[in-house]
Design brief:
Blueprint: E1 5-9, H1 13-24, E2 40-42, E3 48-52, H2 58-63, E4 69-73, H3 74-80, E5 89-94, E6 100-107, H4 112-117, E7 122-126, H5 129-139, E8 143-147, H6 154-158, E9 163-168, H7 172-176, E10 179-188, E11 190-195, H8 196-201, H9 203-217
Parallel strand pairs: 1-3, 1-4, 7-8, 7-9
Antiparallel strand pairs: 2-3, 4-11, 5-11, 6-9, 6-10
This protein binds phosphoribosyl ATP and magnesium ion.
Phosphoribosyl ATP (PRT) is lined by residues 10, 12-14, 54-56, 73, 75-76, 98, 100, 166-173, 188, 190.
Length: 218
């Protein structure tokens, strides 16, 4: 049986923050993705390799078996599917890395609290339309959602939207664009996401790796 395990990571903060966890699990990645153009990286463990994919593609790779497991932000997982277990995905460990929050932000001169209280329709632009839809539905707020793929801060500044839903870490991106955080929707961190079928087929090495991640994440 082929027990090679493929781990999907994305370049940037997920890769960088996963390295110490991998090291604690006794795994060193053979190359630096910032200098190498390779998309498949070997590791110090012959049974484990890393594939580099777009952050939002990690759940797709894991769901369809292109990778056995991966590391993805909770934002990415919630946008991928509202039924992760139904897609054959198992999310066993909060890795506590790449932490930030999902928030609502507006221009300083937009009175969000009053708009909500009065039941006004609010125009909300976001890359995270599933999370935004759920949040405003839970609050009973009527919204017109506008799907964007980036530069969300621009939407309230140009009149495209009244508010945005975006990830906030230090707050400096909002500040630089004169936007204010008016509501925190949820805390976000990266999670280990596992293909349930792979876990059954490669039970021992998969278990060992998942347990090592869980211990390293504390
Ligand atoms: O490559 P692709 O565009 O598909 O994916 P991506 O841009 O989502 O990837 P990446 O590497 O930027 O983010 C990967 C994961 O890191 C996300 O899915 C989040 O779970 C997590 N994370 C943690 C963040 C941030 N912090 C963060 N600050 N993701 C994005 N940001 C952005 C945010 O969208 C905003 O533009 O940083 C800006 C805000 O930062 P501050 O510090 O100015 O508040
Ligand atoms: Mg990014």
């Amino acid at each position: 049986m082929n027990d090679l395990i493929t781990l999907a990571l994305s370049k940037g903060r997920i890769f960088d923050d996963s390295l110490p966890l991998l090291a604690a699990a006794g795994i060193e990645v053979s190359e630096d993705p910032e200098t190498s153009r390779k998309l498949i990286l070997g590791t110090s463990q012959p049974g484990v390799r890393v594939v580099l994919v777009r952050a939002s593609d990690v759940p797709t790779y894991v769901e369809h078996g292109g990778a056995d497991l991966g590391v993805a932000g909770l934002d990415v997982l919630l946008e991928h599917s509202d039924d992760l277990a139904g897609s054959g995905l198992y999310v066993p460990v909060d890795l506590q890395i790449a932490r930030c929050r999902m928030s609502v932000a507006t221009r300083a001169d937009f009175d969000y609290a009053t708009a909500v209280k009065q039941g006004s329709r609010i125009r909300v632009a976001s890359k995270y339309t599933q999370i935004a839809r759920q949040h405003f539905a839970d609050k009973g707020v009527h919204v017109d959602l506008i799907k964007l793929y980036g530069s969300m801060e621009l939407a309230p500044l140009t009149g495209l939207a009244d508010a945005i839903v975006d990830l906030v870490s230090t707050g400096s991106t909002l500040k630089a664009n004169q936007l204010v955080e008016v509501e925190r929707i949820m805390d976000i961190s990266a999670r280990l996401v596992v293909n349930q079928a792979a876990l059954k087929l490669k039970r021992e090495p998969m278990r060992r790796l998942i347990d090592a991640f869980a211990r390293a994440a504390g």
